[in-house]
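Homework help board

Subject: predicted structure for assignment chain

Our instructor gave us this sequence and asked us to write out the predicted structure in token form, then describe one feature. I got the tokens but I'm not sure how to describe them. Can anyone check?
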Amino acid sequence: MTKRWGRTMVAVAAGAMVLLVSSCSITMMSEEQKVEELRRAGERGAEAHLVLLAEYKLPTPEECLNNYSRFTGGGAPWDEPYSATVDWISLHGEYFVDSCVTGKPRVPTK
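My token output:
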């Protein structure tokens, strides 16, 4: 039984290593993915507009920015492996806030 248990542990360890290595192959976000994320940020911003009104809050730029993480699930997704660039975070936030203030999703142009 000891040999069987040892083989099982080796197989489990090998499987864990494969999962670990494959999860490290995160790549940069493509332009198409960025456009989709900006579209999604605009949609979430427009939804936030309605929620804030239902909470008796005016969707001002400050109020929308204060609720950015709440409605986007923590902010902008990573556009590079393991991080989000300052420019990307700013652009993503602009799409959300603009849409939140107006109540209409800001649509990215290519």
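Reply (TA_rk): Your tokens look well-formed. For the description, you could write something like this. Helices lie at 2-23, 31-54, 61-66, 68-72, 86-102. That's the kind of observation they're looking for.
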